[in-house]
Amino acid sequence: MDFTSTDSLDGDVIERAFTLGDIPGILWTPSTASADTPAPIILLGHPGDIGRMHPRLAARARSAAADGFAALTIELPGGPGRTPLVEVERARADLRRALQAGEPVTPDVIDRLILPLVERAVPEWQATMEAVLSLDEIGGPVGFSGGVIAIAVRLAAVDQRVRAAALFAGSFVPTATLTDAAQVTIPLHVLLQWDDEGNDRQQALDLFDALGSADKTLEANMGGHTGVPPHAGESAARFFARHLRATE
Amino acid sequence: MDFTSTDSLDGDVIERAFTLGDIPGILWTPSTASADTPAPIILLGHPGDIGRMHPRLAARARSAAADGFAALTIELPGGPGRTPLVEVERARADLRRALQAGEPVTPDVIDRLILPLVERAVPEWQATMEAVLSLDEIGGPVGFSGGVIAIAVRLAAVDQRVRAAALFAGSFVPTATLTDAAQVTIPLHVLLQWDDEGNDRQQALDLFDALGSADKTLEANMGGHTGVPPHAGESAARFFARHLRATE
Asked: Which domains does chain B have, with CATH numbers?
């Protein structure tokens, strides 16, 4: 984990860009975190392009830091600054064409778009966890928040270090994700925008039902794909406070 | 509104039993409420029998009082101490028979069980609101919480004084309630127990979808019919704090 720049956000949060091999990423630590009081950490998922997403990711990191949590994100496989994934780009073009033509999005296109990302991103998140948990000021437990739901579900299914996950049911779901979902047993907080036109609501409900966790919450709100109300962010924050603070 | 007894719960909450005509009820006011600082009030719904439900109702009232809200409940039509509703009792017996025989519960039975309660309970809640809002220490706005969802939905549809409602999707829903639902426009917080064996999940989702409010949240949790997790109560409390505190 090679740090390439350090910045201070309002004195409360240290923002450090890093690379891990060829993966660019950003780590945010509350200025209170130290070897004596290491911070739990939340991994921040996103739809790709951490440069473009930076303002929103930094806002989520600040909110995490206010609760005493570090936060971290890495670029998606095939994202800006990384080796392009030709097959994924082709699937994305096919998806765009289908949406523009008003044609149904076939499972085949979703599999070709999402599964290569899942296959590559999950070991990258695991390598990043390994690296960040070796830092003195980071102590775990680890949470995962948002991003491509198929990646989050696979990671939660295979890696016991992830102890709680807040999922956003707003992206395409390959059939294989339903199988992964049954293997997940950690506490989950699933956010769904009920009137999200670009989302298949029934598929999101089926995925929630398939998740194996005994402790899972579905929170559905109005406001369309991007209109998540502020109180939904607050309830996700309380979810992590319940599950990542060892003393509570 | 004739008060028949007064009790103090820990010095923080005044509990007063009352009758309004032939309707028995209970009013809880935070000891801080006065003519100078009148309290908003939450109407507490329940499945019937306020004597048996008293411990749970008093716990909800204490929690409301901690947030500065008064709380009130009245006995259901046909409930203990009230004129029996022979047709409703007959429908309840038919329902019990169907459930014990493992037969499907027909819409006809649900209509005969629930609609007479809706027809009678809604004007009774309205008369009670009228009476309680005339007290110096109660100032509104009014919230409604839980109980028979068909009653809550009809009341919210017809009475503008109810400004926010937390509904529990755990009781039978007559078809007419879907029509009432479309008329509701106030902020809503709907609680669903996802793995409630006695509940028709699809019907609950259909009802949530039918509600006309632009600001509505569905929160689904695990734990069966009676296993509502503590954090669900907290999120309902925050919902009322957002909508009933005039200054927020």
From this structure: 2-80+117-244 (3.40.50.1820)
Burial of residue B186 (number of CB atoms within 10 Å: 0-12, 13-18, 19+):
buried
ipTM of the complex: 0.91
Contact (CB<8Å) B219/A216: no
Query: What does pTM read for this prediction?
Result: 0.93
Q: Are A38 and A29 in contact (CB under 8 A)?
A: no
Kindly report, residue by residue over B177-229, the tens digit of the pLDDT.
999 999 999 999 999 999 998 788 999 999 999 999 999 999 999 999 889 99
A205, A219, A234: residue with CB nearest B219: A219
Q: Scanning every residue of chain A, which has its alpha carbon at the shortest distance from the alpha carbon of B188?
A: A221
**φ, ψ for residue A128 (rounded to 5)?**
-70, -40
Closest residue in chain B to residue A242, using alpha carbons only: B231
**What angle separates helix B175-182 from helix B149-158, to the nearest 10 degrees?**
30
Q: Mind telling me how many Å the CA of B216 is from chain A's nearest CA?
A: 6
* Distance (Å, whole) CA A71 – CA B64: 35
Report the chain A residue with the minimal C-alpha distance to residue B232. Answer: A217
